[in-house]
Amino acid sequence: MTDIAAGSISGSLAPRRRFVLLRRLAGHRSFQVGLILVALLTLAAIFAPVITGVDPSSMKVRFRFKPPSEAFPFGTDNFGRDIFTRVLYGARVSLWIGLAVAAMSGLFGAVIGILAAQFRRLDAILMRVMDALMSFPAILLALGVTAALGPRMESVIIALTVAYVPAGVRIVRASALVVRELDYVEAARIAGASNIRIMVRHILPNSISPLIVHVTFVFAYAILAEAALSFLGVGVQPPTPSWGNIIAEGRDYATEAWWVMLFPGLGISLAALGLNLLGDGLRDILDPRLKGRG
Amino acid sequence: MASPLVSIDDLTVQFRTDRGWANAVEGVSFDIAEGECVGVVGESGSGKSVTALSILRLHARGAARYSTGAISYAGRDLLQASERDLRRIRGRDIAMVFQDPMSSLNPVLTICDQISESLRLHQGMSRAAARKKAIELLDLVRIPDAARRVDEYPHRLSGGMRQRVMIAIAIACRPRLLIADEPTTALDVTIQAQILELLRDLRAELGMAVMLISHDLGVIAEFARRVIVMYAGRIVEDAPVDVLFQSPRHPYTEGLMASMPALDGGAARLYAIPGRIPDPDETIDGCRFGPRCAHSEPICRTAPPRLIAIADGHRLRCTPRTRAADLT
Question: Which of A135, A148, B207, B224 has the most neighbouring CB atoms within 10 Å?
C-alpha cells in the first residue's frame, strides 16, 4: 500500500497513454488472470438466483452436515442449508461490501486529498484527523464503529470506509501536492480560473491514477475485513449469508464438517487474489517508475 | 503621456524564510503605457518574475506578502482588489506566457479545451463558439492545419507549437497587457526567432502592451522599446533600448553587455561579472551591487543609492554615476 503511495506520485491518466494503456493492460498476464477471476466471481454473484434456484436460508434438517455430493456440490451446514447456494449469495454481500467500500473510500479520499493539498491551513487539520484514524488498526477501528452503529451491512460499509479513507487521502494529497505546483495549474490561475475549477479540472485528473490502483487493493482488503468482522460477530448478521459469517457459523463444526468453512474461504481467497493481481497489473502500467513498461 | 495602463509604485514583496521575511523585490516602481513594449532583464533571482507575478497577485498568501507599494491597473488598485475582481482581470485584461511550454499545458485536456477555458470563463461563450474561436486563434498564431490540431492533446505538439498554443491561450480574450516570462528560453534558437516575431506581430495587430522578461539581452534588444534592468530585487537602470545598448550607465548593465558573446568576438573568453547575486536576506551596507562592482567607491558602501532620473526616460541607481551625469 505504501509503495503505491510513494511509487507514482504524479501519475496521470494522460489521454496519450489511454490507448497504449488499454493495450498494455490487455497484454499483462497477472492483470488478465485477475480480471478473469474477478469477472467470474462477479457473474456468479449477479446470477446467483439463476445458478442455484434454491433459497439460501431454506433449512432441511434431514440433510444436516452432508458432505459435498451431486445434490449438494459444497455440502450442507448444521441447519441443512446448501453451502453452494449460500456461498453464491454470500458473494453478493461480500463483493458488494468490497465494491462499496472501495468506491466510497476512493471518493472521500479524492475529495479530502485534493482539499488538503489545495488549502494548506485545512491540510494541517485534515491530516491530523487522518493520522489519528490511521493510528488504529483497521479492524479495531471498524470493530469500534460497527459496535457503535449496530451490526448491519451498512455499518460494515461505513466502518471500513472510515478505516480505509486515510490511506486514500494521503495518496491523493501526495500527488496533488506535486501537480498543484506545475506550470499548467499556474497557467489556469492566470487565465482566471477559480479554485474549484482548478481542483476539479486540472489537479484531480492529473493526480488520480495512484488512487485507482489503491482502490482495487481496498476492494480486496474490504472483503477480507468484512469476513473478519462477520467472523467476530459484528459484521453482516445471519441469516443473511456473507463469506465471513458462513465461516463463523461453521467454526464450531470444523472438525466434522470441514466443507462449511472451506468453500467460503476459497471464495475470499480467490476474490482477494484476483483483485490483487488486477491491482498489481494496474500499478505496473500506471506507475512509470516500475519496469514492465515498454 | 496619458495615464499608464499599469503603474507599479514602490512595490516591496517579501517571502517567508526560516529567518523571517526577506525582500524578494524592494521599492520597485515603473509604469507600462498602453501598447508599450517593456523588457525586463536581470539574472536569476533578480526579482523579474516576482514582479511580474505580483501584477496578477499570484503569490501564495502566507508565503509572500506585499509590504509596501501599490499596483494599479487602469486606475484600479490590484493589491486591494478582491479575489473575485482579480479573477476577472486575470486572463481577460492581463495574460501571461511562461517559460516552459512543455509543462504549461494540461496533459489531459485537448488544445481546444484549454483555449476555450478563458473564453468560456470570461466571455461566457458556448462550447461551439469557443471552438470556432479556438481555431481562429490557432490560425492567428500560425499553427498549420488548425481545424485538425485543435482537437489534439498537447503531447502531439512540439515545443514551439506548444508555445504558440500558450500564446493563443494568452491572447484569446484580447488582453491589454501580455506578460511574457522568458517565453523563448526553453526553445531552440530558430524557434526562438519565430516566436519573437509572432509576439511582435500580434502586439502590433492587437495593440496590447507587452512586458517581456528575459535574461537574454539579444531577445530584449530585438523586442523591447524600453528596458528595465533589475538586480537583487531592485531596478538598477531603466532606459530606452537604444540608449541602454549604446551607453549603459550602471556598472551592472555594463557587465551584462560585456558578458554577451559577440558574433565577431572570436575565441576570446566570455566575460563574467565576478561574484554572485546576494540572497534576499543577506545584509549588505550601501549598494547591493557594491561587492561585485569594479567601480565601487567609498560612498557606495555607506549610503544605498537611489533610483534617480538622469535624463528623460532614463533612471539610474548608482551614486557615483548619477553625480557624474549631473555634472555633465
Answer: B224
Q: What is the pLDDT of residue B228?
A: 93
Closest chain A CA to residue B57: A190
Whether chain B has a CB inside 8 Å of the CB on A183: the answer is: yes
Q: ipTM score here?
A: 0.78
Tell whether B42 and B115 lie within a shared domain: no
Determine how many CB atoms are found less than 10 A away from the CB of residue A79: 16
CB contact under 8 A, B121 and A191: yes
Domain that includes residue B157, residue range = 102-174
Identify whether residues B123 and B238 lie together within a single domain.
no
Would you call the peptide bond into A137 cis, given omega within 30 degrees of 0 as the criterion? no
The answer to whether the predicted template modeling score (pTM) of the entire model surpasses 0.90 is no
Q: Are residues B298 and B234 both part of a single domain?
A: yes
Q: For residue A198, what is the DSSP state?
A: I
Q: From B103, which residue of chain A is nearest by alpha-carbon distance?
A: A183
Predicted pLDDT at B265: 59
Do the Cβ atoms of A241 and A45 come closer than 8 Å? no
Contact B62 A120 (CB under 8 A): yes
Q: Are residues B22 and B166 in the same domain?
A: no
Residue from B47, B41, B1 nearest B28 by CA: B47
User: For residue A18, is pLDDT > 70?
Assistant: no
* C-alpha pair distances (Å), B33 with each of B22, B61, B100: 30, 29, 27
Q: Which one-letter DSSP state was computed for residue B109?
A: S
The whole-angstrom separation of Cα A239 and Cα A236 is 9
Same domain, B224 and B212: yes
The tens digit of pLDDT for each residue in B240-277 reads 988 888 888 888 888 888 877 766 656 667 778 888 88
What's the CA gap between B143 and B150, in Å, rounded? Answer: 10
Q: What domains does chain A contain, in order, with CATH numbers?
A: 2-286 (1.10.3720.10)
Residue B187, domain CATH: 3.40.50.300
Cβ separation B106–A186 shorter than 8 A: no
Count the Cβ atoms, other than its own, within 10 Å of residue B88: 14
In chain A, what residues touch B153 (CB-CB under 8 Å)?
14-16
State whether B90 and A16 contact (CB < 8 Å): no
Which residues partner with B311 through β-bridges? B314
Residue of B86, B99, B100, B108 to mutate for A, most A C-beta atoms under 10 A:
B108
Low-confidence ranges of chain B (pLDDT < 50): 1
Three-state SS at A260: helix
Q: Please name every residue paired with B179 in a beta bridge, in sequence order, or none if there are none.
A: B96, B211
Q: Quick check: A152 contacting B, CB < 8 Å?
A: no
Q: Are A168 and A105 in contact (CB under 8 A)?
A: yes
Name the closest residue on chain B to residue A203, using Cα atoms. Answer: B106
Tell me, what's the pLDDT at A20?
66
Q: How many domains does chain B have?
A: 2
CB contact under 8 A, B98 and A183: yes
B1 inside domain: no
- Name the closest residue on chain A to residue B53, using Cα atoms: A190
